[in-house]
Amino acid sequence: MRHIDRPAAPGMRFTQAYSGNAVCAPARCVPTHPEGTKRQSGLPRGQHAPSAAFPYKALDAAGP
After folding, report:
1. How far is CA 25 from CA 20, 28, 45, 51, 60, in A?
2. C-alpha span between 48 and 33 (Å, rounded)
3. What's the domain count of the chain?
4. What are 51-59's contacts with CB under 8 Å, separation 24+?
5. How many angstroms separate the CA atoms of 5 and 19, rounded?
6. What band does 39 get if pLDDT is binned at 50, 70 and 90?
7. What is the 3-state secondary structure (H, E, C) of 1-64?
8. Tens-digit pLDDT profile for residues 49-62
9. In which domain, by residue range, is 55 found?
10. Model-level pTM greater than 0.70?
11. Is residue 63 scored above 70 in pLDDT?
């Protein structure tokens, strides 16, 4: 993922945050997962619907 760390470079800080998960690991995956933290597709683990829009693909297509 290109430029994902750019907002952090000047010192962007999130001081008030909420996680919809008991453990933060799934919440950290939200930017790269099309369905967020919920499992709704009914597909086996690790598979996604062909129509799923991965945000990192849009960022990559936009270029630098």
Report:
1. 11, 5, 16, 25, 23
2. 9
3. 1
4. 55/31, 56/1, 56/4, 56/31, 56/32, 59/1, 59/2, 59/3, 59/4
5. 20
6. low
7. CCCCCHHHCCCCCCCCCCCCCCCHHHHHCHHHCCCCCCCCCCCCCCCCCCCCCCHHHHHHHHCC
8. 666 666 667 777 77
9. 2-61
10. no
11. yes
Residue for token digits 């995956």? 29
Q: How far is CA 60 from CA 3, 34, 35, 39, in A?
A: 9, 15, 19, 25
Which one-letter amino acid corresponds to residue 62? A
Of the candidates 34, 40, 38, the one whose C-alpha atom is nearest the C-alpha of residue 52 is 34
